[in-house]
Design a protein that fits this description.
This protein has about 100 residues and is mainly beta. The protein has two helices and five strands. Strands 1-2-3-5-4 form a five-stranded mixed beta sheet. About 20% of the residues are buried.
């Protein structure tokens, strides 16, 4: 399930921390915070460029805004850079080991 939130004015470089993916394991939902910067041309858009923050434990919600000036113009025109906070990091759901 994907949920979206309204765009927050003042978010750097048009990044939209507006989507969350609810991923389930054993019937429990885990919220993953996702951000996206829309491609420069909707007509020429090819898809998304998923930016992985690395880790473990590294937040990635701001990675699209941080990487946008470093990406070639052709990439920015054709792809939506997407970032995310992994489970237990930043705005994503916390991890509970049940201990």
């Amino acid at each position: 399930m994907i949920r979206t939130e309204p765009h927050r004015p003042g978010t750097p470089s048009g990044a939209r921390p507006d989507a969350g993916a609810a991923l389930g394991e054993g019937g429990r939902a885990t919220g993953i915070a996702v951000s996206r910067i829309e491609a420069g041309s909707a007509a020429k858009r090819h898809g998304v460029l998923l930016l992985n923050p690395g880790g473990p434990g590294s937040p990635g919600l701001t990675v699209p805004a941080e990487m946008e000036p470093l990406l070639p113009a052709e990439v920015r025109e054709h792809f939506d850079p997407v970032g995310f906070d992994p489970r237990g990091v930043g705005r994503s759901s916390p991890v509970n080991c049940g201990l």
